[in-house]
Design a protein that fits this description.
- The complex is a heterodimer.
- Helices cover about 35% and strands about 25% of the residues of chain A.
- Chain A has helices spanning about 15-30, 80-85, 115-130, 140-150, 175-185, 190-200; strands spanning about 1-5, 55-60, 65-75, 100-105, 135-140, 155-160, 165-170.
- The two termini of chain A are about 10 Å apart.
- Chain B is of the alpha+beta class.
- Chain B has 2 domains: about 5-165, Beta-Lactamase (2-Layer Sandwich); about 175-235, Orthogonal Bundle (Arc Repressor Mutant, subunit A), CATH 1.10.10.10.
- Chain B has 10 helices and 5 strands.
- Chain B has a 5-stranded antiparallel sheet.
- In chain B, a hairpin with a 5-residue loop joins strand 1 (about 40-45) and strand 2.
- Chain B is elongated.
- The two termini of chain B are about 25 Å apart.
- Classes of the chains: A alpha+beta, B alpha+beta.
- Chains A and B meet through helix 3 of A and helix 6, helix 7 and helix 9 of B.
């Protein structure tokens, strides 16, 4: 299931929290070889995790992390504006209607539908909070995954070659795109909507999820 | 005057505001324009100091401060450190103090409905821009759906202004337009179509959309037309 959790609420989900940062270390450090910081506990974190971002997380049936992404407003500090201005022609993308989406991560044993589910979660956030676009940084490997799940970003700029190619991309999420992603992920839009509503007070949170 | 024109005019007043009195005058005018019971801008600093302006009664504001309702108010506790807009119905009003607080707020005319936009400013600054009203759920859902986008944008403009009025504050460099945004806005001002602008700048139309949205936000306008007008009147672009 999808959860939408601000960093300061992660404590309530210890297993999910720990496995998310472990999976991030596995993906970004071990598999992609990015220059990221992994702490003594084997968890990958950067300064943006300290800014109380909103995580969209796919939780596996056993309560562990299956995949996630990290959202921040572009009106404050964010990766695209702090580190990748060279990829946006020097344009500081900053608007209350544009959020940044980074650290798109999938665990090694993620179910195939996980990436699509995360995208649907991103779509729920857009519809629920009036967000019109996401900007994000992604590597070459993700291009294929995004295409597979039916939600390819528009590339604003890129640098590097082959595997090391890093791009800044833009997502619009039309109803049509949403329908395609939902279909491919095999998750009805009503279901992702329900998960969103649960996280944001639409209906009471079930207690069983915390025991996994 | 059309709805958007009126809102742009009010944002223009906000931009020219030189002091807190002008902020108060603007929020009154905004409240009247949106035909709601109240609009409030509320700044809470990390050490718990508060500042604000708005249309709540003086009695209610005084009571709120005297009773330290910051600690009880679910709108504050539910929005603090967040950045998504919140309909009050989604907050947790279940505790006894929250329910008592809500009853008191309604008795003071705050309204049974509310929509708050949390804003994260620089270095831990936090503010809320709230619209509240007395009506049924259906009417409120319609109102927030129709006005959410503009309320979010106005909330951020209000905060920009409040930050700017702080003593000793240096202008925010992030509000300056980059050369690329200036190019895009100049071509739009010259009457080029989006496709023509994109082609001239050798970028995709999607990329152009982001540049224009970004410029619009920095110029504090609600739509592209007014963003262009502002850029022209400030001499940022010349055609």
């Amino acid at each position: 299931m999808l959860r939408f959790i601000y960093a300061d609420e992660l404590e309530r989900f210890p297993k999910l929290k720990r496995t998310m940062f472990l999976d991030r270390a596995d993906q970004f450090k071990a598999r992609l070889g990015w220059d990221v910081t992994v702490d003594a506990n084997g968890e990958e974190r950067d300064e943006y995790d300290d800014m109380n971002p909103l995580y969209v997380i796919w939780e596996k049936p056993d309560g562990a992390h299956g995949g996630s992404m990290r959202l921040l407003p572009t009106t404050g500090p964010c990766m695209v504006n702090d580190h990748f201005l060279d990829l946006t022609d020097g344009v500081r993308v900053s608007s209350p209607l544009i959020w940044e989406c980074t650290r798109f991560c999938l665990s090694r044993d993620a179910e195939p539908k996980t990436a699509g589910a995360l995208m649907l979660g991103g779509g729920e956030v857009m519809a629920g909070f009036g967000v019109e676009h996401y900007v994000g940084v992604f590597d070459a490997r993700m291009v294929r995954i995004y295409r597979m799940i039916g939600s390819s970003p528009e590339v604003l700029g890129a640098k590097g070659e082959g595997r090391d190619r890093i791009s800044v991309g833009l997502w619009n999420f039309s109803e049509e795109a949403r329908r395609i992603v939902a279909e491919r992920a095999g998750i009805p839009p009503e279901t992702s909507r329900m998960w969103f509503e649960r996280s944001f007070g639409g209906q009471p949170l079930p207690m069983l999820a915390q025991t996994g | 005057m059309g709805k958007i024109e009126r809102r742009e005019a009010l944002l223009g007043d906000l931009e020219r505001a030189q002091g807190l009195e002008a902020l108060q005058a603007t929020i009154l005018a905004l409240r009247d324009h949106f035909h709601v019971d109240h609009m409030v801008y509320h700044w809470v600093s990390s050490n718990g100091e508060q500042f604000g302006c708005g249309t709540y009664s003086d009695v209610w504001v005084q009571r709120y401060v005297d009773h330290d309702y910051l600690r009880v108010d679910p709108v504050i506790t539910g929005c603090y450190q967040r950045f998504h807009p919140v309909d009050w119905k989604r907050l947790d009003w279940s505790s006894k103090p929250s329910r008592a607080f809500q009853a008191e707020a309604i008795a003071h005319g705050v309204g049974n409905q509310g929509f708050s936009v949390p804003i994260r400013g620089p270095i831990g600054q936090f503010a809320l821009f709230t619209t509240s009203h007395n009506c049924d759920d259906e009417e409120w859902a319609r109102f927030t759906e129709d006005n959410r986008r503009d309320l979010i944008l106005i909330a951020h403009e209000f905060n920009e202004k409040a930050l700017e009025l702080q003593p000793g504050r240096t202008p925010e460099p992030s509000r300056a337009l980059s050369p690329r945004e200036i190019d895009a806005m100049t071509l739009v001002a010259m009457g080029y179509s989006r496709a023509q602008v994109a082609e001239t700048l050798s970028i995709s139309e999607h990329t152009l959309r982001v540049y224009i949205e970004s410029a619009r936000s920095k110029l504090g306008a609600l739509n592209t037309t007014h963003a262009v007008a502002r850029a022209l009147s400030r001499g940022l672009i010349v055609v």
